[in-house]
Amino acid sequence: MVAIVSNKREAILKAVEDMYTEIANCPTRLFHFPTGRRAAELVGYPPAELDALPPTAVESFAGVGYPFAAGVIRAGDTVLDIGSGSGTDAILAARRAGPKGKVYALDLTEAMRAKLARNIAAAGATNIEILAGNAEQIPLPDQSVDAVTSNGVLNLVPDKTHAIREILRVLKPGGRLQISDIALARPISGKAKRDPKLWAECIVGAVEEDAYLDLFREIGFKHVEYVSSFDYFAHASGEDTRLMAGYFGAHAITFRARRPEAFEQAQAPTDDAAVLRLARSAGGQLAGIGGAIAASAACFGAPVLVSAASAIGATALTSHATLYPIFVGAIALSLWQLYRSTRERDRLAPFFLGLTGGATAAIFLWLMVTGIVPLPGIALYGALGVLVAGSLWEMAGQFMEVCVTKIRREMAREKKIVPIGRKITNGAAISIATAAAFYGMYKSVEAFAPKAEAAQIACFGINGCKGQTTCATAWNACPGQNSCKGKGFLHASPKECADRGGVPLKGSPADPARQNT
Question: For a Cys-Cys bond, which of 81, 178, 309, 367 suits 373, CB 3.0-4.6 Å?
Fold first, then answer.
């Protein structure tokens, strides 16, 4: 990845400029790589999108893929299109950004910029500004764009490292990148790389796919994610080009990436860092599922919990008012991990599914333990199942996008930088807010069910509390019994409890004193 020496660099840029000047001025000529509308359709552009563009923009199309498949441009974005050419991608980006957005169309070639200006006018795109320059010296301020798109350009750049640093520089924190470019399966010899004319053919300037994507990571991009690949040179007109591409395994790839947020800083990749990152990411995903399982276990395991707590006299742990915040805390853990993962991948659908399930489960349990609304236990577990499904969906999405054999390299390297004073302040604020929230949950349950015990499903045996929602006092209502045989003890009368040899818990429905009040 060493930059080409200065004199060779200028020769390469001149060869590239000459080639693309010819594509601008003589678009019907047969070039060694696909161009025009045929090429655009081959690499994946929908015909309807091409029909809506000025024909003169599409006729000089020289991209190698469909970068918009990465889907990083949003309404209102400020976008940089590197290597705009005749304007196909710049106009499409402008339409995606909308009237509140803007596109900077950067191109090296004067003939292409002139054609681009005419096509912008023909398309009526008033939110595009043309810039003269190249990827190694982007004429924009730091952190000035929300998204960058590029199509078949970086393989033509002599100093790719510097160009990628420039892209990182102009992106805002959290800014997004979509690129279609040429990559190789095996390296090209140094002698071939020193021939400026071969650079313009889009093969010699390319590098191996793994090394190419790793370069983005090393420079500081996060979540460098492969989107698709395409055998671009199989459609080349020249047999020599097809043979060369086949020998080096040249192909087109499309991928997306993101600049870290302001509080993040990319970390140089090391084997140790990769392993730690993998462990942390996997741990976070498992924690999301684990949180939902823990919440469910808080119900399923309630009889065992209450029995153990009673044995050691830990009566505080047997109250619904104490158990409910623990249950909600487990759900919150699951949702927090799920949100972090989906936010980083910019795909929140699994989180919203999990949020629906988690919030529903918390509401259902509160209604059940307070006895306000009679709900069957299956409703609670169904809601928890939705939460688990959201976590599993997100985990599956990560493994679908990132090949398991490459997962160590695909995990972003990051380090959060927060001043120690801010850490202490934030920690104190979060602790106070969490304590207040848990106390509020405790009191909300305690106010409605002061005598409720934590064994919500203790009477889940034969005929025990079927159809009932608050088996709360059943566990201790008749301590003489070890299970809820017959009727649930919560609903046992004083006589029924006495007939079974039980001693009614004071204040329970089985307590004669309560019946007389």
Answer: 367
Angle formed at CA 281 by CA 384 and CA 414, multiple of 5 degrees: 135
Q: Evaluate whether 360 touches 480 at the Cβ level (below 8 Å).
A: no
CA 207/CA 16 separation, integer angstroms: 17
User: Which of 163-167, 299-303, 357-361, 445-449 is modeled with the greatest confidence?
Assistant: 163-167
- Strand locations in 188-306 (E): 222-230, 251-258, 264-266
Q: What is the pLDDT of residues 127-158, one digit of tens each?
A: 999 999 999 999 999 999 999 999 999 988 88
CB 362 within 8 A of CB 331: yes
Residue ranges, CATH 3.40.50.150, the chain: 6-265
Q: Using CA atoms, how far apart are residues 180 and 64, in angstroms rounded to an integer?
A: 6
pLDDT digits (tens, 9 = 90+) for 406-446: 443 444 333 333 344 445 555 556 666 666 666 666 666 55
Overall CATH class of domain 6-265: alpha beta
Pairing of β 102-107 and β 264-266 = unpaired
Angle at the Cα of 460 from the Cα atoms of 459 and 463, rounded to 5 degrees = 80
Highest mean pLDDT of the ranges 268-277, 321-330, 493-502: 321-330
Strands (E), 144-221: 145-151, 171-183
Strand order of the β-sheet with 171-183 is: 128-132, 102-107, 78-82, 145-151, 171-183, 251-258, 222-230
At residue 383 the predicted structure's pLDDT band, cuts being 50, 70 and 90, is: confident
Q: Exposed, middle or buried: residue 140 (CB in 10 Å: 0-12, 13-18, 19+)?
A: middle
Residue of 302, 293, 210, 203 lying closest to 243 (CA atoms)? 203
pLDDT at residue number 427? 57
Q: ∠ CA(102), CA(103), CA(107), 5° rounding?
A: 160
The answer for residues whose C-beta is within 8 angstroms of residue 67's C-beta and 6 or more apart is 89, 149, 150, 151, 178, 179, 180, 254
Query: What is the radius of gyration, based on Cα positions, of the chain?
Result: 32
CB neighbour burial string for 291-314, b if at least 16 within 10 angstroms, e if fewer:
bbbbbbebbeebbebbeebbeeee
| β pairing state of 251-258 and 222-230 | antiparallel
Q: Which amino acid is at 213?
A: L
Token pair of 220 as six digits = 């500081």
Pairwise CA distance, residues 22 & 33, whole Å: 13
Adjacent-strand bridge partners of 225:
256
Going by C-alpha positions, the residue among 121, 117, 170 that lies closest to residue 146 is 170
The model's pTM is: 0.54
First-to-last alpha carbon distance for the chain, in angstroms, is: 87
pLDDT bucket at 39, cuts 50 / 70 / 90: very high
| Residue in this structure with the two tokens 């469909």, named with its chain if needed | 66
